[in-house]
Every structure is written in structure tokens, then in C-alpha cells.
Amino acid sequence: MILPIVGYGNPILRKITQPITKDYPQLSELIDNMFETMYNARGVGLAAPQIDLSISLIVIDAHPFAESYPEAEGFNRVFINPEVVEEFGEMWLFEEGCLSLPELHEEVSRHSNVLVQYYDKDFNPKEELLTGVRARIFQHEFDHLQGKVFVDRLSSIRKTLLKRKLNDISNGRVSTSYRMKKPSIKK
Question: Can you list the residues of the chain whose pLDDT is less than 50?
Fold first, then answer.
């Protein structure tokens, strides 16, 4: 089932998520729905807060980057309760976008490597070193679990220049090819 994606301005995108257990209700179905939602929106990653759930769950399929970044080939993962053990390596700029911030793309600086621990879809514990674009996608999605979005990593001057676009997204004045959850009415 394709789920609506929460847009920038929704308070859930600012909450730190809660870990889940193996018996989380309908977890397998939720994971399938997240992948279907991500593919429908032509994304490469999706975090649970983006579908209005404040839980520690990420899905990633980096295949669309494989032509330019060979390490992306086959990088299809479910990250349950992920933790960053270490971020290291050079900081590098890369133009990021986000399904919760449609029509907005900005260069963001992140570490080139990240060591992560997580549970896979079958709740097997994993530790994995992610590099390059794989690290980039993971870090972007992990930010969502920490109540952050990629524009939080921009300079204050750049954020000021984007204020109108951000307000438009917050107020639902944006067009997408995928379903978005309408913003709450502000009182």
C-alpha cells in the first residue's frame, strides 16, 4: 500500500524516534509499504517519520545511483533501530533532495564513511561500514530519526534564502507526483 508522505513543517519530522521490538505490529507489512511508497515517489530512502510514524525504521534502495556510483548497486537495506558507531573520513558536498521537501535540492556536507549497527528486517543484529553514496543516503535518513532534515545542515544565510520555499511546503503549496499528507491547520 502506498502511504502519504509527511511534508516539511509537520511536527513529527522534529521528534526523536523510539526503538521498536521484534513484535512490532505488522512490521513486515509496514516495511513492504515503505518500500512501495518510496519507489512510487522515486526516492532512494524513506524513514518512518516521513510516513507519520515516530519509530526507528529506515528503508533504502540506492539502485538509481548505481550508474554513477557503483557502490550503490545492490544496496537495498532495512535498518531497524540503527545507531551510528562512528562517522569519519573526508567531508564532501553532494546535492540532496528529500521526499518531505519536494522541489528542493541543496548541497550538503557529510562524512564519507559511517559505521552503523542495526537490526535487519528479520531482527538479526548487523554492523556495517558504509562508504560514499551509501553512507550519504544512510546519514540523510538517519537524520530523520533524530528529528532533523537536510536543510538543518545548511548555513543560516542559505536557510534564510529558502524561507519562502520552506513556508510553501509547510503550508501544502507544493505539487508532487506522489501523495502527501496535508499539513495540520495552524491555530
Answer: 187
